[in-house]
Amino acid sequence: MENIIEIKNLYKKYKNAEEFSVNDISLNISKNEIYGILGPNGAGKTTLISMLSGLIKPTLGSFTINGLSPQKNSSKLKQIIGVVPQEYALYPTLTAKENLMFFGSLYGLSHKKLRDTIDESLELMGLSKFAGKKVDQFSGGMKRRCNLIAGTLHNPKVLFLDEPTVGVDVQSKKAIIDYLLDLNKKGTCIIYTSHHLSEAEEFCTQIAIIDHGKIHATGTPDELVQRVANAENLEDVFISLTGKELRDVV
Ligand SMILES: Nc1ncnc2c1ncn2[C@@H]1O[C@H](COP(=O)(O)OP(=O)(O)OP(=O)(O)O)[C@@H](O)[C@H]1O
């Protein structure tokens, strides 16, 4: 299948850091995948996704998305990607609809098209009733669903998500996963990080397990489980590849 993302020997070392947070990652991602980047705390998942979504610059190496490079085609690249960070990117004192109109206008969508997309997305996410309510009155799950709509109004070809279901209730989690599956069916390639291994096992078509800034294994969830002796699920694979040592840092 055709690659939509091609990463070549990518490195990131933060200022004053002693180690590389991303250390020589090369990876191809095909169109239409739901690609899970999994790894323990501090493995380099956010750093990798932040480079690909243009939030931080690589120290070394290169990548293209849909054939576009961030050095040569930065503005075109921004139009075809969506980014949903861990933190909420919403204005608390604006209503859900006002927030979405604001973020949508940044993508240059026409007023009519934007209104229709917002109404449709709020409906899909079960938020229509709350469209006129200020976001600071929303629960964590409602904010996260609204945040996800804000990052996808322009129907991106590639969507980067950093732990989209962390800290939300089961109902919100289901709404988020269903929304993402629907986007993927309509042609959006999804790159996502998570600590929910059972969720990733069910949701992802491909997985990369990373640790200490390096890729340790890639494959479909089934392939990974079959490759590791005595593994019954992705959690067994994860522990086998990354060990049982705790990753506390102070
Ligand atoms: N702005 C920064 N400056 C210096 N070091 C950083 C910075 N951001 C991250 N790091 C370091 O880079 C390494 C990778 O961090 P990163 O946040 O990418 O990991 P992660 O896999 O996303 O972890 P988590 O699961 O905890 O979100 C860690 O050692 C972290 O301390």
UniProtKB/TrEMBL annotation:
PROSITE patterns: ABC_TRANSPORTER_2 (PS50893). Keywords: ATP-binding, Nucleotide-binding. Residues 5-237 form the ABC transporter domain. GO terms for molecular function: ATP binding; ATP hydrolysis activity. It comes from the Bacteria. This is ABC transporter ATP-binding protein.
